[in-house]
Structure formats: C-alpha cells, structure tokens
Amino acid sequence: MLSKNIKRLRKKHNLSQEQLAQKAGITYSTLIKIESGLNNNPTLETITKLANVFKIKIDDLVGRS
C-alpha cells in the first residue's frame, strides 16, 4: 500500500523519483526500494519526510484510515 501511494502521489505531483528523493532529503536508492516494495518497513523519519513533501498526514501516506 505504501509503495503504491508514494508512486501515485509522486506522479500526481509530476515529480521524478530523483526529484522526490531530493525534496524529501532521502537517497534515491531508498526511494527506489520503497516504491518497488523491496523496503516494506522504512523508518518513521523517512515516512515523515515523504509525507511532508506531499503535505499530507503519515496515516494518509501509509493508507491508514
């Protein structure tokens, strides 16, 4: 769910993976692993940074109601 949400939001905001990683202050490889599902358990810090880029709550990013 997280990987799909990040990918969907990234495309909605017209960001490349490199742009999103840079805006969030995370490495490109970290973002690739999360989006591809290889990293199903990113740190809270990483999730927070990504949510901040999209200006949404962490719960919305991870698909929690």
Q: How would you describe this structure to a colleague?
A:
- With 65 residues, this protein is mostly helical.
- The chain has a single domain, classed as lambda repressor-like DNA-binding domains (434 Repressor (Amino-terminal Domain)), CATH 1.10.260.
- The protein has five helices and no strands.
- Helix 2 crosses helix 3.
- 18% of the residues are buried.
State the fourth-level CATH superfamily.
Answer: lambda repressor-like DNA-binding domains
Mean pLDDT: 95
Q: In total, how many beta strands?
A: 0
**What does the largest sheet look like?**
none
What integer value in Å does the Rg equal?
Answer: 10 Å
Count of helices?
Answer: 5
Can you give the helix content as a percent range? 55-70%
Sequence of secondary-structure elements: HHHHH
Class by helix and strand content?
Answer: mainly alpha
Distance separating the two termini? 12 Å
Report the sheet-strand fraction. Answer: under 5%
CATH topology: 434 Repressor (Amino-terminal Domain)
Q: What is the highest CATH level, the class?
A: Mainly Alpha
Produce the secondary structure layout:
Elements (H helix, E strand, L loop, with lengths): L1 H11 L4 H8 L3 H9 L7 H11 L3 H5 L3
Helix pairs in contact: 2-3, 2-4
What are its keywords?
434 Repressor (Amino-terminal Domain), globular, mainly alpha, 65 residues
Offer a concise description of the structure.
The protein has 65 residues and is mostly helical. The chain has helices at residues 2-12, 17-24, 28-36, 44-54, 58-62.
